[in-house]
Amino acid sequence: MSDYANDSAYHRPVMLAECLAGLGLRPDGRYVDVTFGGGGHSARILEKLSTGHLYSFDQDSDAEAEAQKLARPQFTFVKSNFRHLYAELESISALPVDGLLADLGVSSHQFDTPERGFSTRFDGPLDMRMDPDGPLTAADILNDYKEADLHRIFGMYGEVTNARTLANTVGAARRGRRLETIAELKQAIVPCTPRGKENKYLAQVFQALRIEVNQEMQALQEMLLQTADVLRPGGRLVVLSYHSLEDRLVKNFIAKGKFFGEVEKDFFGNESKPFEALNRKPEEADPAEVAVNSRARSAKLRVAVKM
Questions:
Q1: Mind listing the pLDDT tens digit for each residue in 76-93?
Q2: Pairing state of beta strands 97-103 and 231-241?
Q3: Given this model, what pLDDT does residue 141 score?
Q4: From the centroid of its chain, how far is CA 2?
Q5: I need a surface site. Which of 98, 99, 183, 204 has the fewest CB within 10 A?
């Protein structure tokens, strides 16, 4: 049986075998899964450990409940956003670690739960919070942000080509009443939704809102910067991303130790960066996996080693 067929109804892990290989797992190693989600990757990491330990992060209470199924001495669940990576691990004397896995984006369970508001397939509240107790929802953004700010996030985070028109359309729709449901948003933006490309367009709009709700780009940058202090020399950094914005940040960080600009060099011209890439180009899921898991279609896997 292939690794990608070994999953659950709660969550189907993407590129499972490739992620495990990237981590270079040792039975006595100490590892971190900063995106527990449905626990697909965590469960398989635990199978490989004997005296080692796995620390899994997630801010979602649904994930916390799912993590209870993996309870054992080698496993610790940390209910926290991964932007607090170093502080959380330091507080439980879990530093340094041998490998870190980040499977970015939304879990299958979150997409498939209508009341979470992540999927364009269902009607439901305009929520999109990965942390159900978070202060900001998609409805708050759509109803309370200035049109200029909506224009910015639709263009930057969703790469929507008619972002200004979309922002103006939302602004006009909300003047009569608040937009509270997915169906209301879809109806409101029909005039600027390209005919024949509705699904792709709505996916871009939802991506932009979700990223803003959860501060995903800021949290990702904060987490990546901490990995250099969390991993031991020779430790592995394994990151799965699902859109170009994430992948660009990961690629730049691995290549340069920073997100923008050129790599810094010392007096002798030696590059100053914490990681060395182990795959120059990102790995992608094979067609067989994509056929059974649509989330794998856009996945890009990057692996690096701590210098």
A1: 999 999 999 999 999 999
A2: parallel
A3: 98
A4: 24
A5: 183
- Write down how long the chain is: 307
In single-letter form, the type of residue at position 256 comes to: K
Dist CA 216 CA 209 (whole Å)? 10
Q: Distance of alpha carbon 187 from its chain centroid, rounded?
A: 28
With beta carbons less than 8 A apart as the criterion, state whether 291 and 2 touch.
Answer: no
Interacting residues of 211 by C-beta distance below 8 A, sequence separation 6+: 153, 157, 158, 217, 245
Helix H or strand E segment including 50: none
Q: How many helices (H) and strands (E) does the chain have?
A: 13, 7
Amino acid occupying residue 143:
N
Residue 275 bridge partners (DSSP): 306
What is the spatial distance between Cα 108 and Cα 115, in angstroms, rounded to a whole number?
14
pLDDT above 70 for 34? yes
| Separation CA 206–CA 118 (nearest Å) | 7
Residue that is written with structure tokens 């080509």 in the block: 161
